[in-house]
Amino acid sequence: MTYAELADVRLFFTDEGLGDPMLFVHGFTGDSNDWIWQLPHFAATHRVIAADLRGHGHSSAPPRGYDAATFADDLAGVLARLGCGPVVAVGHSLGGLVVTALAVHHPACVRAVVAIDPAYLVAANTLERVAPLWEALDGDDPVPVVQAMLAGADAATTPAFLRCWHARRAAGLAPHVLRETLAGMAGGAGSLTSGAAGEDLLRRRGCPVLSIFTDPARSAADEALFADPRSRSVPWEGVGHSLHQERPDDLNRLVDAWLASL
What we know:
The protein is of the alpha/beta class. It has helices spanning 39-43, 68-82, 94-105, 124-137, 143-152, 160-171, 175-186, 195-203, 216-223, 243-246, 248-261, and strands at 2-5, 10-16, 21-25, 47-51, 87-92, 110-116, 209-213, 232-235.
């Protein structure tokens, strides 16, 4: 196993393949194993780096630092130690938020962003729907609340094995990681989830962006904020939140074609 020892955290990552570098960043409660459908495919033509965010997977779980900006700082530290960059930064959900923060706050690290159903531009009615769950997170066991949130992002197409895998991994995370990460995503320091401040940060993405959303309205909203004309947003309806796992071949082909167009 390979680890990067940073100021307050020990991050696990893998590094394989040769060619232009790509960085893969998983979503909330996941880990770098989320990308097993992508890593062999892209490692055939690229150098691929996949990290476990702080508090997730094999990385350590310090008491604080679970906002997008700090997650991005961690990844910039890993890339600096590898002497690697700029990368195509690929992120799912929370990871999409993190690679966006990486592109905004560490632009020299990022050549392009691929954001897969990212955790930004979240609709107001969605935030209102989950608001009653926040108080339950402060209870003795936040795991059932988080598992309910994850299940709510599934679709009829989501296979049972994925639902089971996601729920089991959520059960293994430390309670403070669950609470602090959700707080960061909902509007803590470094959040890009919604509102004027989030849109302003999205407009600061100087690199080309490919985003894929399960909600066409969010896809259109993201497209309106692109700065680079090579950027593209694609709506995929009728699929669950983990669309890179439900439709991996389609996702891999889409990313390959878009990168070739750059």
